[in-house]
From TrEMBL, chains A, B:
Record-stated family: Belongs to the SorC transcriptional regulatory family.
Keyword Transcription attached: yes
Keyword annotations: DNA-binding, Transcription, Transcription regulation
Lineage start: Bacteria, Pseudomonadati, Pseudomonadota, Alphaproteobacteria, Hyphomicrobiales
Species this protein is from: Rhizobium pisi
Protein's recorded name: DNA-binding transcriptional regulator LsrR (DeoR family)
Gene3D superfamilies, sorted: 3.40.50.1360, Winged helix-like DNA-binding domain superfamily/Winged helix DNA-binding domain
Length: 317, 317
DNA sequence: TTTGCTCATGAGCAATTACTCACCAAATGG
DNA sequence: CCATTTGGTGAGTAATTGCTCATGAGCAAA
């Protein structure tokens, strides 16, 4: 844009007005009086000072850096909601900070007066967040699990989040009476046809907000550690370009669900719409960098709660 | 489990709200919505952030008139560094504006990569400036107090700047374990002979930059108000031609230290060299005109941060 | 357990600020 | 020289913010 020569004195006046307003804390009326102009003009000068960035505001608090990172992430990836918590260099925990922030966000949703459907996935991080929840009564809301609560050996799964949630939150809750992975696509169809499962799937599709963990792959990743996949299956997945998983749905580095028999055996509900609802991923940590990045760029999630280090990685790469 | 409203968490919220308001430019309604609180609470958090000095506002524009005044002052008095901030006609504060400008200058020095010795005097204005400092880590620098930190009644002095500074700035700091005024010249010699005091005095003599307030005399001046001098002592001083003081060192209208028993009882370190280092005075206001003028013409300081009105006085007289 | 204190909260209202509109004056350009 | 553009102004009004008050929760002392 062709910048014309501004009236030279005007910026000076703007600076003076801005100073009087922000530093000295005078009202625009007082500024107008002391500069001999109308109140409106004083207002214009003040906003000009802001627009011309003559006024520098700095926030002197550790949280400032996090907010800045969150803003950048939101812009870069077009996310709906981003929260960045400070990294704790001394801790190797994958949940500290995130759990609290996640719980606070869950609580904010549950405190809404209008009835909502809140869906939850699985994972250690999400479990940790749910464990931070205070007791809340919200009989109007419904809480639904996207993933099955049955482990490969038939027991209740290790990280079934919805039951922990039900302990704290008084609301109707809908677990998913299925394993995470079934033996074949056919079996999945059969199970999903059951009335009970059907209705839970229907509710999950209406979720207003969804909280999911993001799992990394590899023989140390949750799918292997929890016994859902054998090492050789995992190896094959990784050879096929798999980068991470959410509720068992495995995606590649671009965040696209991969075309592999294993994805056809996932009995979890589909991840609710990222267009019409809020899908919040909770994850941090170097081992998950690749998975988180994939989930964000491929829009498996549209909101993120993570830590500073991870945020910086996502912005750099 | 259950969470409570802790004070630290509240400050974090305040920081977040302040950031959203001042940096991100959201309205308080939007902030309230995104933080899940009422608008009133959001407003309170924002004003808390201001009250807690989490928000630092700085004007990044050399206002022409101020620059011009600063230039003239520098020329007229041969000063090294002069900063003039706009006068706020409606305010009787002796610190508004100067404090921010002083803090910015201190910060500039502390951000230097090479190790420096920074000396500080005392006074309300200087205290206000130091209170504006953000947290800085500068383990290479040393910060030394020129004046004692013990009040006449034996308590820590009202305006002991170095401890406030130590709160914000991570650097080695050297307080002066002495009163400002001792009972006799002999006592001063005795105290100054102590090893600890000796080494602090030595460091102060090496100061690369010094920040001092300039005190006016009179029964409303700081020396009387803070109880260092009795009224009759003050009256006698003024009859003797005293015009102002820096760190307790009392000088006449020509800026020469006066020949009076009281000056022999000042236990402060001598003001560091105005030939080989930078000695910056912070002061404004009609009551201080005479003292500031004396300090400048007598070269008790070689740099000045003041306001327009004071600058104009100094140029006229 | 009761009492009293502190402090956060939401509501309502007053003060302050931002924005839009219509108009004017000086520069610009044919 | 006039039409046009640019930039500024005040008025009026909508939006936003700041403040006071009544209330209730948490907590410590009695």
């Amino acid at each position: 844009m062709a910048k014309r020569t501004e009236t030279p004195g005007r910026l000076d006046d703007a600076a003076r007005a801005g100073w009087l307003y922000y530093v000295a804390g005078r009202t625009q009326d007082e500024i107008a009086a002391s500069m001999g102009i109308s109140r409106q003009s004083a207002q214009r000068l003040v906003s000009l000072a802001v627009a011309e960035r003559l006024i520098k505001v700095r926030l002197d608090h550790p949280i400032a850096a996090c907010l800045e990172l969150a803003n950048q992430l939101r812009r870069k990836f077009g996310l709906k909601y981003v929260e960045v918590v400070p990294s704790d260099p001394g801790s190797s925990s994958t949940t500290v900070g995130i759990a609290e922030a996640g719980a606070a966000e869950i609580e904010r949703w549950l405190k809404r007066p209008e009835p909502i459907v809140l869906a939850v996935g699985t994972g250690r991080t999400l479990k940790a967040a749910v464990d931070q929840l205070p007791a809340i009564e919200c009989p109007n809301h419904r809480i639904v699990s996207l993933t099955g609560n049955i482990a490969p050996d038939g027991s209740a799964a290790y990280y079934n989040v919805i039951f922990s949630m039900a302990d704290a939150v008084k609301a109707r809750h809908y677990p998913m009476p299925l394993p995470v992975l079934v033996t074949s696509a056919e079996e999945r169809e059969l199970l999903h046809g059951q009335q009970l499962v059907r209705s839970t799937l229907d509710i999950s599709a209406q979720a207003d907000v969804t909280f999911v963990g993001i799992g990394e792959l590899g023989i140390d990743g949750p799918l292997c550690v929890d016994g859902f996949l054998e090492k050789d299956e995992m190896m094959e997945l990784m050879r096929g370009g798999a980068a991470g998983e959410i509720c068992g749905w495995i995606f590649d580095a671009d965040g696209k669900l991969i075309d592999n028999p294993i994805n056809e055996r996932v009995a979890s509900a589909p991840i609710p719409s990222r267009e019409s609802s809020t899908v919040i991923g909770l994850a941090k940590g170097k081992r998950k960098y690749k998975a988180i990045r994939a989930a964000v760029v491929g829009r498996q999630i549209n909101s993120l709660i993570t830590d500073e280090d991870t945020a910086e990685f996502l912005l750099r790469n």
